[in-house]
Specification:
InterPro entries: DUF1707_SHOCT-like. This is DUF1707 domain-containing protein. It comes from Mangrovihabitans endophyticus. Keywords: Membrane, Transmembrane, Transmembrane helix. The protein is mostly helical. It is built from seven helices and no strands. The longest helix has 27 residues. It is elongated. The two termini are 35 Å apart. The mean pLDDT is 87.
């Protein structure tokens, strides 16, 4: 679908919008005067959205400074480093499901029987603790790598 939109013909308003974006890039010092002239000429000669988009593909959105662009990249890199790997997320999901089922079954047995019922779900703390240690180690290694 994106390919269909890019191959659609551009209107004069679209060409003016790209020319305005190029003017902002010139004013911010992102383009030299020669580059600006070439790109504006190409913008007004463009027939499709794809031709227009290639003229501004290497430019950040108007008003963004290089520091803001770098800050966004750094924030995204940190967010990716904090994200838990899929394998660990699956293991935590399995452990939580097993723990929930065991606690519910133990609770039902404890309520429906006379006398003391051994709290067997406590044994799920052992693999849970191991999983917690592994998760901490993996996240620590990922943080050091980035």
């Amino acid at each position: 679908m994106a390919g269909e939109i890019q191959s659609m013909r551009a209107a004069d308003a679209d060409r003016h919008k790209v020319a305005d974006q190029l003017k902002v890039a010139l004013d911010e010092g992102r383009l030299s005067l020669n580059e600006y002239d070439d790109r504006v000429r190409d913008a007004y000669a463009a027939r499709t959205y794809e031709e227009l988009l290639t003229l501004v593909a290497d430019l950040p959105k108007p008003g963004l400074s290089a520091a803001e662009v770098n800050a966004r990249r750094e924030a995204e890199r940190k967010r990716a480093a904090r994200r838990m790997p899929t394998a660990l997320a699956v293991l935590w999901t399995i452990w939580l499901a097993l723990a929930a089922v065991n606690v519910v079954v133990w609770g039902l047995v404890a309520v429906t029987t006379d006398g003391h019922v051994y709290p067997w779900p406590i044994w799920l703390a052992v693999p849970g603790a191991g999983l917690l240690v592994v998760t901490g180690a993996v996240q620590g290694m990922r943080a050091r790598q980035s």
